């Protein structure tokens, strides 16, 4: 018969000792105190037998043993046979205790951080694998550069002179930036030579230049000088039509329709383009003098060989150029054919003005 290694009690059915609860098959713990089987309680003494020559003898019986029987009475002085100790009765098997969770986990699998921290790991991986995050600014920069390039191309396209126009089409006039400076309508190529298309007639020699700079101007009249708001004297002489400054002007009193300005070139030349700033293009102290004077709306350009071309103007204070057929000449005339009414208001003036004249061509061969 097997006994418990911890308490020495007989083992019954089940996985644990019915007396101390020690698991069957496990070694005895080293620090466990010895467990002894408690003796069965003595049964109460039976009342004395009325027979004078016998006395009842009661043997101890295990209380937990249902099969134990009371001993028979024996005569006094008779030997008593010892009664074997009753085996312990098997108690009800205790309920199986569940194994600790930590122990079960350690015995079956290891802890995997990828499974426990999956939501956080997924967020981090999305940030790392995102191919656009942190680089989107490159596309914005490229788009801005392309947009700026497109603007420059459009400005060059619409700001260039129309080389296909003819002198008989006044609508082909092109203007420069405000301030009286020509926008490059002189027709010079990259090497300083002419970029004009081949045409019949004189061509001239040398570089194409502004012939008005060295010319002399004869005018029908000149308005007297005035004093500006600062007390400075302002003159309106003919030389101010070719000084390169559109804020200075030549002007004559009243409506100059039908009057002619004669320009004598420094030497005979072949003329390709002509133009002028058709009013007083001066702005000072918050006052714009262009609408306060008469503006020229149309002129006729005449040349020494008797040819002429007409040019009309938009009302803006800028150089407006017109391409003409190449013509060799020593003089150029400007006949004013149409002007606006005088300016209105307190600052309105009844003067016809030309701020700048441009004549582009080459020295005659």
TrEMBL record:
Transmembrane segments: 137-155
Keywords: Membrane, Transmembrane, Transmembrane helix
A Pfam entry, by short name: NADase_transloc
Bias kind Low complexity: ranges: 89-104, 167-180
Residue ranges with Gly residues bias: 181-192
Record protein name field: NAD glycohydrolase translocation F5/8 type C domain-containing protein
Entries under Gene3D superfamilies matching the protein: Galactose-binding domain-like
InterPro entries (UniProt xref): Galactose-bd-like_sf, NADase_transloc
Region (Disordered): 89-113, 160-206
Highest taxon of the lineage: Bacteria
Record domain NAD glycohydrolase translocation F5/8 type C: where: 233-358
């Amino acid at each position: 018969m097997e006994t418990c290694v911890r308490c020495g009690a007989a083992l019954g059915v089940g996985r644990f000792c019915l007396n101390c609860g020690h698991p069957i098959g496990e070694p005895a713990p080293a620090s466990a105190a010895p467990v002894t089987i408690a003796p069965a309680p003595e049964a109460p003494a039976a009342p004395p037998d009325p027979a004078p020559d016998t006395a009842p003898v009661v043997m101890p019986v295990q209380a937990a043993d249902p099969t134990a029987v009371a001993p028979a009475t024996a005569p006094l002085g008779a030997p008593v046979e010892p009664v074997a100790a009753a085996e312990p009765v098997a108690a009800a098997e205790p309920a199986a205790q569940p194994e600790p969770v930590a122990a079960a986990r350690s015995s079956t699998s290891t802890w995997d951080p990828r499974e426990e921290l999956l939501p956080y790991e997924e967020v981090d991986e999305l940030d790392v694998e995102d191919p656009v995050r942190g680089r989107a600014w490159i596309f914005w920069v490229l788009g801005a550069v392309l947009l700026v390039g497109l603007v420059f191309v459009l400005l060059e396209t619409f700001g260039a002179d129309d080389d296909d126009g003819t002198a008989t089409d006044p609508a082909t006039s092109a203007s420069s930036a405000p301030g009286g400076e020509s926008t490059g309508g002189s027709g010079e190529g990259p090497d300083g030579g002419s970029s004009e298309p081949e045409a019949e007639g004189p061509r001239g020699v040398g570089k194409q230049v502004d012939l008005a700079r060295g010319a002399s101007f004869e005018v029908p009249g000149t308005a007297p000088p005035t004093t500006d708001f600062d007390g400075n004297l302002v003159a309106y002489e003919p030389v101010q039509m070719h000084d390169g400054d559109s804020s200075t002007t030549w002007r004559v009193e009243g409506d100059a329709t039908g009057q002619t300005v004669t320009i004598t070139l420094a030497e005979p030349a072949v003329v390709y383009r002509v133009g002028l700033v058709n009013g007083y293009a001066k702005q000072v102290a918050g006052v714009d003098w262009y609408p306060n004077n008469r503006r020229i709306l149309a002129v006729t350009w005449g040349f020494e060989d008797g040819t002429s071309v007409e040019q009309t103007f938009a009302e803006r204070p800028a150089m407006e150029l017109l391409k003409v057929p190449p013509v060799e000449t020593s003089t150029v005339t400007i006949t004013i054919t149409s002007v606006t009414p005088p300016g209105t208001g307190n600052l309105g003036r009844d003067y016809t003005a030309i701020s700048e004249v441009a004549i582009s061509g080459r020295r005659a061969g």
